[in-house]
Specification:
Length: 367
């Protein structure tokens, strides 16, 4: 087992002790990636990493065993299609001393049939919860290695935005511009993950993707993109305008920028996440556009592009040093345009460090 995995399992067991958790069950996915640095192929065959206070083991489909063994020395309890997983699961629980764990924390992203299989194998009075107090709490605070990968990806996304700025022109379609963005990510060895290009009225749909709409003079364009390299993602939103901005654009861009600044100022260790949302939302509401800010102020980012902490109006999550999240307020005017400005930050002792180096100013295409 790697030094990193050993440290993370130790930290996880400290959280288990503090929360009186007798078993953590993790399916193939990002939680397993965080703990072990890999996960077996995810399919319909039950595969679980089961972690008890003293020992851990895998319930492992035979088909995945050989390919997984090169990544970990954790004990496997294999099962074949001809036999089914139940006997192997009972053996796994017995081997790690978790036949009656008292409280089990389930990976909230695992398949429901995996979870039900495990629940049925445990005593009926077992308390069931999910991972936010244990594994989730640890994942929210990024270490230096995670920071470096996130920072690297932010730089790639900056350059992809700059490519979009250099290529955008009237007459091309949203999908044409999206193709230029994807090509840039690929040119730097990153896998393109998403490409929102919303011109004119399409920019008023926060999760518009890219369509065959032709970009025209006077369009304000939302460009929200992300890629992935070395297991970590990027996410950034910037604005472009073709020629003369639409009426009222400058004023609204200024309001959204002030909302970003208010959220950045509010984001400190010890502050509830909802106070950061309130800071951004208050600026937009006070300016008379509250009804047009239709989503949360931000989301966490790490192995997953969207993960805790979530910067919402109701989140009581207390922000801590090392947490990484987006700040992305927006105003969306139906039929006219939308403006969203997004940066990913890591929280330091004295406040947020922005991972991007790209200014939030609108890029104006001169005609």
């Amino acid at each position: 087992m790697s030094e990193q995995s050993t440290k993370r399992l130790a930290a996880l067991r400290e959280k288990m002790a503090a929360t009186n958790t007798g078993l953590i069950a993790i399916g193939p996915g990002s939680h397993m990636d965080w703990v072990l640095g890999f996960h077996p192929h995810p399919d319909e065959r039950p595969c679980l990493l089961l972690i008890a206070p003293e020992k851990e083991a895998f319930l492992m489909p035979v088909l995945n065993a050989e390919g997984s063994r090169e990544f970990t020395d954790i004990e496997f309890f294999n099962w074949a299609d001809a036999d089914g997983p139940i006997e192997a699961l009972n053996q796994t629980l017995a081997a790690i001393g978790a036949t009656a764990p008292g409280k089990v924390a389930l990976d909230e992203t695992m398949r429901a049939d995996f979870a039900l299989l495990l629940i049925d194998a445990l005593p009926a009075d077992t308390e069931r919860t999910f991972t936010p107090e244990t594994l989730g709490a640890l994942r929210m605070r990024k270490d230096s290695a995670e920071y470096k990968k996130l920072k690297m990806n932010a730089g790639i996304a900056d350059r992809a935005i700059q490519t979009a700025f250099s290529k955008v022109k009237p007459g091309m379609t949203e999908t044409d511009l999206a193709a230029e963005i994807r090509a840039h990510f690929s040119s730097e060895g990153a896998s393109p993950q998403f490409w929102i290009v919303g011109a004119g009225g399409n920019g008023a749909f926060p999760h518009h993707s890219a369509s065959e709409r032709v970009i025209q003079e006077g369009d304000a364009i939302v460009i929200d993109i992300g890629g992935r390299k070395q297991g970590f993602p990027s996410d950034i939103t910037r604005m472009a305008v073709i020629g003369q901005p639409p009426e009222g654009y400058g004023q609204i861009h200024s309001i959204v920028e002030k909302a970003v600044q208010a959220a950045l100022k509010a984001a400190k260790p010890g502050v509830p996440a909802k106070e950061v949302d309130a800071a951004a939302r208050g600026v937009i509401t006070d300016a008379g556009y509250g009804e047009y800010f239709v989503h949360r102020t931000g989301h966490g980012m790490g192995i997953d592009g969207h993960e805790p902490p979530y910067i919402t109006a109701t989140s009581d999550t207390v922000l801590e040093e090392g947490m990484v999240f987006s700040i992305e307020p927006g105003i969306y005017l139906p039929g006219r345009f939308g403006i969203r400005l997004e940066d990913i930050v890591i929280l330091r002792e004295d406040g947020p460090e922005i991972l991007s180096s790209l200014p939030r100013d609108v890029h104006v295409v001169r005609l």
